[in-house]
From TrEMBL:
InterPro entries in the record: Methylthiotransferase_N, Methylthiotransferase_N_sf, Ribosomal_uS12_MeSTrfase_RimO
Signal peptide span: none
Alphabetic keyword roster: Transferase
GO annotation, cellular component aspect: cytosol
Pfam families on file: UPF0004 (PF00919)
Name by which UniProt lists this protein: Threonylcarbamoyladenosine tRNA methylthiotransferase MtaB
Keyword Transcription: no
GO MF assignments: 4 iron, 4 sulfur cluster binding; aspartic acid methylthiotransferase activity; metal ion binding
Highest taxon above the source species: Bacteria
Domain MTTase N-terminal: 5-118
Length: 123
C-alpha cells in the first residue's frame, strides 16, 4: 500500500449524530485509517445528516457536494435522517456511492472493513 487510507466523518445535527460520528471515527482509526478534514482529500467520507429544518436539509446537501468534490472519485457514504427522508434523491446524486438508513448505521464500519483490501489495492 502506498499510504494509509484517509477518511473523514462529517456530521450535522443532534448529539446522537455527534456521538455516532465519534464512534465511527474511533473504529476507523483502530482499523489503521487516517482521519483528515475534507480539505485533506479523504479517500472515504461519511456524511451523517440531519433534516430537522429546511436549513439543515440545505446544509446536508451542501456537505454532500463538498465531500464529493474533495474525495475526487472516492467513497461518499451518506447516512442519517436526511438519508431516511430523501433516499431516492440521494441515490440519484452522482458521487454518492453508498446510502445507509438510520437503522443501518452500525453496518457502515463493518462494510468498510470488508472493502479495505480492495481500496488499499487501488491507492
Amino acid at each position: 500500500m502506498k499510504g494509509r487510507i484517509r477518511f473523514n466523518v462529517s456530521t450535522l445535527g443532534c448529539r446522537t449524530n455527534l456521538a455516532e460520528a465519534d464512534r465511527m471515527t474511533k473504529e476507523l482509526e483502530m482499523l489503521g485509517l487516517e482521519h483528515v478534514t475534507l480539505e485533506g482529500n479523504p479517500h472515504l467520507c461519511i456524511i451523517n445528516t440531519c433534516t430537522v429544518t429546511q436549513q439543515s436539509d440545505r446544509k446536508s446537501r451542501h456537505l454532500i457536494r463538498q465531500a464529493i468534490s474533495h474525495t475526487k472519485g472516492g467513497e461518499v457514504i451518506v447516512t442519517g435522517c436526511y438519508a431516511d427522508r430523501q433516499a431516492e434523491l440521494l441515490r440519484s446524486i452522482p458521487g454518492v456511492t453508498s446510502l445507509y438508513r438510520n437503522q443501518d448505521k452500525e453496518k457502515i464500519v463493518v462494510d468498510i472493513r470488508r472493502e479495505l483490501e480492495r481500496w488499499e489495492g487501488s491507492l
